[in-house]
Amino acid sequence: MKITDLQPKLIWECFDEITKVPRPTFHLDKMREFLVGWADRHGIPCSTDSVGNVMMAKPATPGHENAPRIILQGHQDMVAEKRGDKEHNFLTDPITTIVDGDWVKADGTTLGADNGMGCAAAMAVLIDDTLVHGPLQCLFTVDEEQGLTGANGLQSGFVEGDILLNLDSEEHGQLVIGCAGGKITVCELGYTPEPAPADLKWYEITLDHFKGGHSGMEIGLGRGNANQQLCRFIWEWGKSERYALASVDGGNLANAIPRECHAVIGVEAAKAGEFEECVQKYSDMIHAEYLLAENPDFIFKAEEVEAPAEVIDEKMARNLVAAVFACPNGVQGMSRAVEGLIETSDNLASIKMPEKGKIVVTVHQRSSVDSRRDEIADRVKALFEMIGAQVRFEDPYVGWAPNPDSKVLKVAEESFETLFGYKPRVEALHAGLECGLFLEKMPGLDMISFGPTLKDIHSPSEKANIPSVADFWKFLTDILRRLA
Fold first, then answer.
1. By the 8 A CB rule, do 175 and 167 touch?
2. Which residue in the list 49, 81, 144, 456 is annotated as catalytic?
């Protein structure tokens, strides 16, 4: 079965078209061209702005011209993550979709249902002439997954409305009325390349096949951070033993929990047997620690490799390992205002060596309290400055304060209970949505966020629940009818 065989056919056909367009964050020229061309083919008024946002408009169903003006909003970009053994170029290759029972997934890559499904729903509304609705505008923003470029750069008057429906949530039955703000901390370290010691035996240490996932929505599930756990092992070994570190590479994106990390390390030849035993003991230990939180078949191993030509100077190597091991990571505080909501978190997202003599560590902070977000970012800054890093902050974004008196929320609650026979959960999220920025630019805008059920977003295990997509479509179109 293909996804174009699924129901509701219109939304799945639109999503299928989207999966064929390469659209990783910061590389959205092809997606913008696709959207503009798609609008032209369907005779839909369309415009773009200076940052790449696309807006399409549809007049009200006759007789409903005076209904509240609605903005349907989703983002164009997707998180580009793949399995280590998967050959895929996100700049050129389409996503290969697979129907597996009640789920749609991709072949070894992220699916891009975050937020391709929201964009597909808006497109389906635009071309479905059977629907009843008021005046509609559909906004497709750029670079939501990192930088929030589209929401930050949105100019006054590009879209206008009374109510915004953000189609970027990932659980059917959940109505979102607030979200966390965030910040990215980038720590750049210089090191002195030194000739690799000739008397050492060399290994590549690998930690792979952690679950990873969304660094906001899934940060509270107790999953492992591959960067921190690998450096924990090296730090433990280095407490009593000599080693040299040639390279370390882990994680990719700021908003994804790192699933894998690799390091090339040299140990004294006489200690090789002891080192290999230590690797096995550590593997057994972390498998026990993450028994209920991680994939049971995740890998921690060391394989002998050829000696590298150069290594990181000893002082920086040890400082780097210690700082990564000590870095705040995971849940840092729970909300006192909303029971069960994570208030503040930190994701030790990536360690990269982009060029000779340079190491870059990226850490992503989230919080519903801006001062706590800044505090955690400053703690990371203080830690890495102690080992000589140049630290900068990137892409700060504000949270979205909940409005429990929202009029569109009341309409959505009534619709949901009528359609499905139970009350939806009304929640704030520990994740970044663009809604806070929209509210800054359009004060008084009434907003909620909802979507179908998606699992394991920001990871190659991402999948969309087929029955929930049908319910999502039914819910969205009923809200539009009620608002009209």
1. no
2. 144
Distance CA 34, CA 32 (A): 5
pLDDT tens digits, residue range 150-188? Answer: 999 999 999 999 999 999 999 999 999 988 989 999 999
Residues 296-305 have pLDDT tens digits of 999 999 999 9
Q: Say whether 162 is catalytic.
A: no
Catalytic choice (49, 77, 168, 294):
77
SS3 70: strand
Instruction: Kindly state the helix (H) or strand (E) to which residue 306 belongs, with its residue range.
Output: none
Element containing residue 124 per DSSP (H, E)? helix 113-127
303 included as an active-site residue: no
pLDDT in tens, 296-344: 999 999 999 999 999 999 999 999 999 999 999 999 999 887 788 899 9
pLDDT tens digits, one per residue of 233-253: 999 999 999 999 999 999 998
Token readout for 262 is 């690799």
In the chain the domains, ranked by start, together with CATH numbers, are 3-179+399-483 (3.40.630.10), 183-397 (3.30.70.360)
Q: 130, 285, 139, 282: which is closest to 203 by C-alpha?
A: 282
Taking CA atoms, 231 is separated from 348, 349, 419, in Å, by 12, 13, 51
